[in-house]
Amino acid sequence: MLYHSTNNPDHRVDLKEAILRSLPPDNGLYMPDTLPTLGEEFWKGWRDLSFREIGHAVAGAFFGEDVPEDALREIVDGTLEFDAPVVSLTPDDHILELFHGPTLAFKDFGARFMARLMAWLTRDEDRQLTVLVATSGDTGGAVASAFHNVPGTRVFILYPKGKVSGLQEKQLTTLGGNIAALEIDGTFDDCQRLVKSAFLDRELSERLNLTSANSINLSRLVPQSFYYIHSARQIDRTPAFVIPSGNFGNLTAGLLARQLGLPVERFVAATNINDVVPRYLESGDYQPLPSEATISNAMDVGAPSNFARMQALFGSSWEEMCDTIDGLAFSDEETRAAIREVKETLGYTIDPHGAVGWLAAKAWRTAHPDTPTITLETAHPSKFLDVMEEELGKGSVEIPERLAVLADREKVATSMSADEAEFKDWLNGQ
Ligand SMILES: N[C@@H](CCOP(=O)(O)O)C(=O)O
């Protein structure tokens, strides 16, 4: 399979180049030349398949031409060592819990798959791989966990100072070994800009053998499409998916699942006040803005990188995107009220990101009462302990042991400005 840049269909590379180089030199994003579908045979029996069997089929459809079946099965099985259960709050209101992995966020699916695929792609090489990743909260921890102690790799995580939760920060800054954190005096968008600037510097990128673990890397998205199929098979009617969104990788993965043949009534992009995409869907005008800090911090993204892929999937047609995706945005006050309402009326503890999704699902179902929604609960509530305890009271959220043990560990991070030259100087010295 060949992959092309969203900025230039004539710039085409093979799988290894697309995954390891991550970003085309023209600052586009890689897309497969042919978007695969799963055949009739798969869709005849899909409701009876296990999560792993779905993973084998989807990974095979995307990567089967380039990676042997047994290697791909091993990559998928190693990724899916935990489930993504659906919890039904009412017959129409379903929550897809994506936080049962090692770092308690949906990013574990993508990061674990990517680490294993990269290990396979570089199995005959002895050059050190340098993984760069920008995070607004959850990606960094998942990538750190997936690559920790992987021989021949080192990971540099850029995160915005003071803009991730306390426990998220511990996940980024306490592992040590081959994982290093850079605390950037700026926003997530600054972190993402710095990472991209390193990739666009071909000399630096070649010399350090840079690769990206953000969702600009296609290998992050494919495994995320597994759980759309896995959850939809558990609901008796065709659902609408509601996706709390920041960089829009998760929604793009849903679009890939639909492209594979999954019946989906609608996608609903749910955001906090960083509502660039809902405003685009409303007006047709795409205006990235500097991100603003909110209590659903992982979604504090002002220039969502996967928007380019979304546009490519709809042939750059605003009308066609609007036929498939709705957008809704909510404030922190509304999110806080939703956390309380979900607990009081449905007995479920939902994190701030899931709460934004739940609000969008509720509003959307009011206009479409016959369609059930599946809302992606992207992270465990304990990752946002301060907010949860402000709304639900002290001790209201149980902290899983794997997160609780981090609380007393010492944070180790290098402080840095959001200046490209300073960042590149630092990288050059590594
Ligand atoms: N929401 C992310 C931001 C990075 O986005 P990604 O899609 O590139 O992983 C986070 O939690 O860090």
From TrEMBL:
Residues 3-77 form the Threonine synthase N-terminal domain. It comes from the Bacteria. It is an enzyme of class 4 (lyase). InterPro entries: Ser/Thr_deHydtase_PyrdxlP-BS, Thr_synth_N, Thr_synth_N_sf, Thr_synthase-like, Threonine_Synthase, TrpB-like_PALP, TrpB-like_PALP_sf. It catalyses: O-phospho-L-homoserine + H2O = L-threonine + phosphate. Residues 97-361 form the Tryptophan synthase beta chain-like PALP domain. Its EC number is 4.2.3.1. Signal peptide: none annotated. Pathway: Amino-acid biosynthesis; L-threonine biosynthesis; L-threonine from L-aspartate: step 5/5. Pfam families: PALP (PF00291), Thr_synth_N (PF14821). Keywords: Amino-acid biosynthesis, Lyase, Pyridoxal phosphate, Threonine biosynthesis. Its cofactor is pyridoxal 5'-phosphate. Belongs to the threonine synthase family. This is Threonine synthase. It comes from Haloferula helveola.
